[in-house]
């Protein structure tokens, strides 16, 4: 053990610290240059403005590791490619669900390809007089050939107001409830035999609890009255004893 320790100290004493310092400084310079290059490439993937990229680069050049930490905090969270694909996905979903919606007249759900509402027969699409393609009834121009099909884009039909729509929604809810009740599905809200039996048992338990509570209250009241009577009798006995003592 002593030989190992002495050998270690001899090895440390024979080291050339100048060479070690130059080697470490060389490694740090290489790391610094790689870090600067990575920041330049990463900032280019997140922004297209060169002024902002140069600002990030100077931040890392001047502050080194603390500058890198600051850059990782303030840099944009998404790259340009990620933003592009997210926007493309949003546009695609918007295109796929463009024909999904509710009928503007009765509020029934519409599916892609519907030309008329299946509930009220409201016309949703019509043929373009120029190219014959089905287009939205409220569009001002045909999206296929550009022909003007109407003078204004807003529909001329008198749609129901908010009160009528609210009444229709309530009626549809009542209809759905009746349908569920009649088909005896698992979402049934009516009281079955088991529900009635359970409610009867709960009511019986409630009545027994109230009776027991009333009995316990009556017993407590009787005990209070008895205690008061006993206290009064004890007081009377004490008074009589005191009078007898005074006479003696």
UniProtKB/TrEMBL annotation:
It comes from candidate division WS6 bacterium GW2011_GWC1_33_20. It comes from the Bacteria. Pfam families: DZR. Residues 225-248 are annotated as: Disordered. Keywords: Membrane, Transmembrane, Transmembrane helix. The chain crosses the membrane at residues 20-41, 53-74. Residues 235-248 have a biased composition (Basic residues). The keyword Membrane applies. Residues 103-146 form the DZANK-type domain. This is DZANK-type domain-containing protein.
């Amino acid at each position: 053990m002593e030989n190992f320790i002495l050998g270690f100290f001899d090895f440390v004493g024979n080291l050339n610290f100048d060479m070690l310092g130059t080697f470490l400084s060389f490694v740090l310079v290489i790391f610094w240059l790689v870090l600067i290059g990575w920041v330049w490439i990463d900032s280019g993937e997140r922004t297209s403005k060169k002024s902002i990229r140069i600002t990030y680069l100077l931040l890392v050049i001047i502050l080194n590791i603390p500058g890198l930490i600051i850059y990782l905090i303030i840099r944009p969270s998404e790259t340009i490619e990620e933003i592009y694909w997210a926007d493309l996905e949003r546009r695609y979903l918007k295109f796929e669900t463009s024909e999904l919606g509710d009928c503007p007249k009765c509020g029934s759900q519409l599916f892609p390809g519907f030309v008329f509402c299946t509930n009220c027969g409201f016309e949703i699409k019509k043929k373009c007089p120029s190219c014959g393609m089905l287009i939205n009834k409220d569009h001002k121009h045909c999206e296929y050939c550009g022909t003007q099909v109407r003078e204004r884009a807003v529909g001329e039909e008198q749609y129901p107001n908010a009160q009528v729509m609210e009444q229709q929604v309530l009626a549809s809810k009542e209809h759905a409830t009746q349908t569920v009740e009649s088909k005896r599905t698992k979402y049934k809200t009516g009281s079955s035999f088991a529900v009635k039996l359970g409610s009867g048992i709960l009511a019986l338990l409630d009545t027994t609890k109230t009776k027991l509570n009333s009995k316990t209250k009556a017993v407590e009241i009787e005990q209070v009255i008895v205690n008061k009577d006993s206290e009064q009798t004890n007081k009377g006995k004490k008074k009589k004893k005191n009078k007898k003592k005074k006479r003696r």
